[in-house]
Amino acid sequence: MKKIYSLLLAGLCVATAATAQTAIAPAKPGVTYGKAITPEEAIPMNELHQKLTNTTAYTGKIEGKVVEVCKKKGCFMKLERASGEPVMVKFTDYAFFMPQDIVGKTVVVEGNAKVNETSVERLRHYAEDAGKSKEEIAKITAPKKDIVIVADGVVVVR
């Protein structure tokens, strides 16, 4: 009988933890995700590209507009840049997730940015998570060299 109660209690704990992870605060100005950060001293996205032409990595705060978020659970987002190509933002150790209503918001992320080559397999995985069609996913046939940001924290600016 003690084993049954122990199993039920363990199951309840797991269910509670799973439910807590899915409760993501809506994206409103001032809301932070992950490490609590402030928007001060952030560089704009167009400046990040310039910084990465002279060095291999950048550590600090970057401001940008969210143009896409993972549709499955908010495990990544993409920020807009002037060229039209979005920049991938992942989160350190998948420690936090983004709400679906963050698309269109301006955010500041704090973390590390570097130029990275993403494999075809990983690009297809991201496209699937973003809800792309099978036809769009099939068009991904070559790896892509691009900027990738790994963020410790995100704050919604506007």
Main features:
158 residues, alpha+beta, OB fold (Dihydrolipoamide Acetyltransferase, E2P), 5-stranded mixed β-barrel, 4 helices, 34% strand, DUF4920, DUF4920 domain-containing protein, signal
How would you describe what is shown here?
The chain is of the alpha+beta class. The protein has one domain: OB fold (Dihydrolipoamide Acetyltransferase, E2P) (Beta Barrel), CATH 2.40.50. It is 29% helix and 34% strand. It contains four helices and seven strands; from the N terminus they run αββαββββααβ. A five-stranded mixed barrel has the order 3-4-5-7-6. A hairpin with a 6-residue loop joins strand 3 and strand 4. The chain is globular, with a radius of gyration of 18 Å. The termini are far apart. 23% of the residues are buried.
Strand order of the largest sheet: 3-4-5-7-6
CATH class bucket = Mainly Beta
Largest sheet: 5 strands, mixed, barrel
Distance between the termini: 54 Å
Strand content: 25-35%
Number of helices: 4
Q: Pick out the low-confidence regions.
A: 12-21
What would you report as the Rg, rounded to the nearest angstrom? 18 Å
CATH third-tier fold name = OB fold (Dihydrolipoamide Acetyltransferase, E2P)
Secondary-structure element order, N to C: HEEHEEEEHHE
* Helix content percent band: 25-40%
